Amino acid sequence: MSTLVVLSESLQHIYHGTPWLDVTFLEHLQETDAEQATRRVGESHNIWELVNHIIFWHQNVTRKLKGEKPEQEGDLPDFYLPENHGENNWQATLQRLEHSMTQMVETIRNFPEEKLYTPVPETQHNAHYYIQGVLQHAAYHLGQIVLLRKHVIQ
Known about the structure:
Blueprint: H1 3-15, H2 25-29, H3 34-37, H4 47-65, H5 87-110, H6 127-152
């Protein structure tokens, strides 16, 4: 099995599967409603902001790996919290997360293996650095979401 298949499957498992972490985004976010997603613990970001942050970075890294400009006009800002905190908008955000995960998984899986350790154009790092970063980033913020849910759902 190729390195890229292993890495892409690892990300897919963190979203919905059986990751080594033993928790997934899907299991925690599908049980979170819009009101809970906007609650804060102290000065922390809320779950909704964290989800949009993950989407932002998936989009950014996907574009870098495809040789596109990472940030484009019309993108939502990092840690975006919409003014409309309604349930329909929250469900739309969760759909965007699923789409960004799917896009990121496909980008990793289809990245040319021979370019994995060569510098990504217009950056200082190779593709492996960014792909490994996406996995670490997902695990880190999933941990935050798990902890936030423990505090906001009581």
